[in-house]
Specification:
The chain contains 14 helices and no strands. By secondary structure, the chain is mainly alpha-helical. The longest helix is centred in the first third of the chain and has 32 residues, at 84-115. The two termini are 49 Å apart.
Length: 315
């Protein structure tokens, strides 16, 4: 006798419910269980977005909830696009974004290539390398703030030893020139293991027989690397760039722990600028418009990038 889950469920339910269950298809029953969850997720994600879009066209201030809300049209968007501080924050974000992605991809791929060589202690070293990404940004920020201390920071002593200069002269977090690089170094240290794991998955997905065929054709190691390894790992690299690009574009907690956006506004990323406009100056309508601009920017760039990624996969 075959087992029918619908009939079995009908036997265990009251007669009225049983009649309804018998009349439903498997697809309808699936939607009956999944539907409430999907509706809840849509409500959680869509409603705040619609509310933010609405506020972006108003002069609303969250610290004055009883104040009359006035429609201001595109004035908030015009002010943002003509605000020099916004463009400075976008410039700082671009500097942070580009350099962290470049360094993480290069170092992450190099580590993945080394780990993939399968040597003694391979698993142990993989675990050690992955440790930084297991820590919370707050812990990492405090940890590296101590490292960057001019008097007792280990990082300054290492740089001083390599350059022959006084360690206290390297004010990493207080220097206009060095502060942007200090957050790049920390983010690279923390998230390079993530890129390494994605690259390692790509390297281990390449069949051995492809390299064996290349050796039969007397292809050099260098030629195998550029004609086999790089093209087949490229989709994984691009995926890692997509993930890290989205995450670093909205980077907030780590930078706040390290520099707080300073000195001045040197490391004030777009997310920090947005937070100050929304929760320090209480310009809710203005900050909502800024949030929508950032959302459209990330969404647009990610969409273009995903199309390029799909074309690479189809090759």
């Amino acid at each position: 006798m075959s087992f029918n889950p619908v009939e079995q469920a009908a036997k265990q339910t009251p007669p009225a419910i049983a009649r309804r269950v018998r009349g439903l298809s498997d697809k309808a029953i699936a939607w009956l269980f999944v539907g409430p969850t999907i509706f809840l997720l849509l409500a959680i994600n869509i409603f705040p977005l619609i509310w933010t879009i609405y506020l972006s066209f108003t002069n609303f201030k969250a610290n004055r909830p009883n104040r009359e809300i006035k429609y201001v049209g595109l004035r908030n968007y015009e002010r943002i696009l003509n605000d020099a501080d916004v463009w400075l924050s976008m410039q700082a974000t671009a500097h942070f974004l580009i350099w962290t992605i470049v360094l993480q991809v290069i170092i992450g791929f190099a580590l993945a290539w080394l780990i993939n060589r399968k040597f003694k202690g391979n698993d142990m070293w993989t675990t050690i390398i992955v440790l930084p990404m297991m820590l919370s940004p707050a812990v990492v920020g405090n940890f590296w703030t101590f490292f960057y201390q001019p008097q007792i920071g280990i990082f300054n002593y290492v740089i001083g030893f390599l350059t022959g200069k006084d360690p206290s002269s390297f004010e990493m977090l207080g220097s206009v020139d060095l502060a942007p690089w200090s957050i790049v170094i920390v983010d690279t240290w923390m998230w390079t293991p993530f890129v390494m794991l994605i690259c390692l998955a790509g390297l281990r997905s390449i069949p051995d027989y492809i390299y064996e065929a290349a050796e039969v054709d007397r292809a050099s190691r260098w030629r195998q690397f550029w004609t086999i390894t790089v093209p087949m790992v490229l989709p994984f690299l691009m995926l890692a760039v997509l993930f890290r690009g989205i995450e670093n574009f909205k980077m907030f907690d780590l930078v706040v722990q390290l520099t707080g956006g300073g000195p001045g506004s040197t490391t004030e990323l777009a997310s920090i600028n947005l937070k100050r406009e929304a929760f320090e100056k209480w310009r809710t309508g203005y900050s909502s418009a800024f949030a929508i601009i950032l959302f459209v920017t990330v969404f647009g760039l990610a969409s273009i990038y995903v199309k390029a990624l799909n074309k690479v996969k189809e090759r």
